[in-house]
Amino acid sequence: MSRKCDICGKGVVAGVQYSHAHNQSKRTWLPNIRTVKAVVNGTPKTIHVCTRCLRSGKVQRAI
User: By the 8 A CB rule, do 35 and 28 touch?
Assistant: First the structure.
């Protein structure tokens, strides 16, 4: 599955995780992506959307 929102473009973010002893290790933060059937240009289509876009109403779900 895609790790990028088709609406806003939110994707994977990389960074550094620090332990209590200040040891560093690389890690990634994954967006909360859902596969939904939505109306795109008047036709139902399956797209990958982050939950922020779903909650804010940027996507009209197909029934």
Answer: no
User: CATH number for the domain including 30?
Assistant: 2.30.170.40
Question: How do residues 3-27 score in pLDDT, each as one tens digit?
Answer: 999 999 999 999 999 999 999 999 9
| pTM for this predicted structure | 0.82
The upper half-sphere exposure of residue 4, i.e. CA atoms within 13 Å in the direction of its Cβ, equals 3
Query: Could you tell me the residue range of the domain that residue 42 belongs to?
Result: 1-63
Cα–Cα distance measured from residue 48 to residue 3, given in angstroms and rounded to the nearest whole number = 8
Contact 38, 47 (CB under 8 A): yes
Domain tally, the chain: 1
Name 7's Cβ contacts closer than 8 Å, sequence gap at least 6: 47, 49, 50, 53, 58, 59
